[in-house]
């Protein structure tokens, strides 16, 4: 007996943090597992492991599924939007070093003159 | 008075020595606002569609991960009146939605979609490398 688990785009978020979703037109992605009991068996102890299996299976199916050139272009534009995430990272880093919050005086001295004495 | 204390005093009273302070190694040299970063990005983006006609001003940039903006400004040759148009491209699951003034919406296709794809890919490659100094493939900082 099999249970069909529907994979949403949320499951297909890129692991490298660029935020893209991988989509295919008119392709329903399903993953079959042997049974709910098997799904909860010792072989799959954590939810994370189970999710990883689902994602891997879904990716494999997506790789094999046909994709229209239009949808491929849409995905490429989506990927390029990762530049905004890099910008956010840079701004977050800058915020950590807010010049309006000066370093402690001893740190300034240490940074610029060392602590010879 | 110890040497350290003298130096601290110099820092506090604003002696020229203070002007020679070096930034700590782990601190960025310059803080840029989001607006300034977008302007830098847009300078690259504006060149991706070919030469900007004389008297025109063009902006093209990625506003957020799902939105791209194209802004064009020029003067009407007959009336001299300033004109402008803003186009927003939104990434939807179904495709790329083009939104213009006057509540005009349409999913783009054909050559327009192809051109936008090419432009956004070049934008990503060039902005990530030239503005943020990172490898476009990995997102990691480029080796100095």
Polypeptide structure, described:
The complex is a heterodimer of chains A (117) and B (144). Chain A has 117 residues and is mainly alpha-helical. Chain A is flat and about 55 Å long. Chain A starts with a strand and ends with a helix. Helix content of chain A is 50%, strand content 7%. Chain A contains five helices and two strands. Chain B is α+β, with helices and mostly antiparallel strands. Chain B has four helices and five strands. Chain B has helices at residues 3-13, 16-19, 34-45, 110-130, and strands at 57-64, 67-75, 82-91, 96-100, 104-107. A five-stranded antiparallel β-sheet of chain B has the order 1-2-3-4-5. In chain B, a hairpin with a 2-residue loop joins strand 1 (57-64) and strand 2. In chain B, helix 3 (34-45) packs across helix 4 (110-130). The longest helix of chain B is centred in the C-terminal third of the chain and has 21 residues, at 110-130. Chain B is globular and about 70 Å long. The chains are: A mainly alpha (117), B alpha+beta (144). Chain A binds chain B through residues 9, 16-19, 21, 23, 70-71, 73-74, 76-87, 90-91, 93-94, 97-99, 103, 105, 107-109, 111-113, 115-117, and chain B through 2-4, 7-8, 11, 21-22, 24-25, 27-28, 31-32, 34, 37-38, 41, 62-68, 89, 91, 93, 95-96, 109, 113-114, 116-117, 120-121, 123-124, 127-128, 132, 134, 139.
């Amino acid at each position: 007996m099999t249970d069909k688990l529907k994979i949403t785009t949320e499951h297909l978020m890129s692991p490298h943090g660029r935020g893209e979703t991988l989509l295919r037109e008119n392709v329903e992605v399903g993953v079959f597992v042997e049974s709910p009991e098997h799904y909860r068996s010792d072989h799959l102890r954590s939810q994370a492991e189970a999710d990883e299996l689902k994602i891997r299976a879904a990716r494999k199916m997506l790789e094999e599924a046909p994709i229209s050139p239009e949808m491929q272009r849409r995905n490429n534009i989506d990927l390029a939007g990762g530049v905004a995430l890099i910008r956010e990272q840079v701004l977050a880093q800058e915020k950590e070093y807010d010049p309006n919050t000066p370093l402690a005086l001893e740190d300034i001295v240490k940074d610029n003159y060392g602590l010879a004495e | 008075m110890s040497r350290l204390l003298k130096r601290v005093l110099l820092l506090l009273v604003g002696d020229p020595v203070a002007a020679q302070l070096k930034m700590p190694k782990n601190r960025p040299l310059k803080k840029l606002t989001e607006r300034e970063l977008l302007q830098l990005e847009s300078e690259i983006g504006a060149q991706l569609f070919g030469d900007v006609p004389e008297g025109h001003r063009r902006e093209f940039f990625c506003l957020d991960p799902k939105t791209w903006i194209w802004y064009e400004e020029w003067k009407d040759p007959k009336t001299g009146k300033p004109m402008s148009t803003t186009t927003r491209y939104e990434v939807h699951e179904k495709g790329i939605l083009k939104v213009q003034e006057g509540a005009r919406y349409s999913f783009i296709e054909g050559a327009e979609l192809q051109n936008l794809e090419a432009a956004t890919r070049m934008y990503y490659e060039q902005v990530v490398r030239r503005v943020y100094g990172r490898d476009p493939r990995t997102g990691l900082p480029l080796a100095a």
